[in-house]
Write a structure and sequence with these properties.
- The chain is α/β, with parallel strands linked by helices.
- The chain is about 35% helix and about 20% strand.
- A five-stranded mixed sheet has the order 1-3-2-4-5, with helices on both faces.
- Helix 2 links the parallel strand 2 and strand 3.
- The relative contact order is 0.23.
Length: about 120
């Protein structure tokens, strides 16, 4: 059994519900472009970053939550008024963040295993 819970969500409403259902827990969220039926994302950086993030996931704190959130299709993501950009202040995908803190890795930072591990292991 893993020491953390993983939740997969799609879109802003599902993300908000996943967070509110786990209030009080240490939440890490990874935001990625939508995947098609074959599991391929429209976002090349997301494709490149995912194995790195997944490779460090074993370093998540015990009892924490990892939310994998697909943000939508490319045209939705590119809209500056989408909920992820407006409310969560995301500037790019992939983004890995520790919910409720300023800790955030954006785009190429998610390619660096040492930065991902640092986020998962430091208070």
């Amino acid at each position: 059994m893993s020491l953390y819970e993983e939740v997969k969500v799609h879109g802003y409403a599902e993300f908000c519900k996943a967070v509110s259902d786990r209030k009080g827990k240490d939440i890490f969220a990874y935001f990625s472009g939508d995947k098609d039926a074959d599991g391929n994302s429209w976002c090349p950086d997301c494709v490149k970053a995912e194995p790195t993030v997944r490779g460090e996931i074993s370093h998540l704190p015990e009892g924490s939550v990892f939310i994998y959130c697909q943000v939508g299709q490319r045209d939705y993501w590119k809209n500056p008024n989408n909920d992820f950009k407006k409310t969560l202040k995301l500037s790019g995908v992939p983004t890995l963040l520790r919910y409720g803190t300023p800790q955030k890795l954006v785009e190429e930072e998610c390619f660096k295993a040492n930065l991902v591990r640092m986020m998962f292991t430091e208070d």
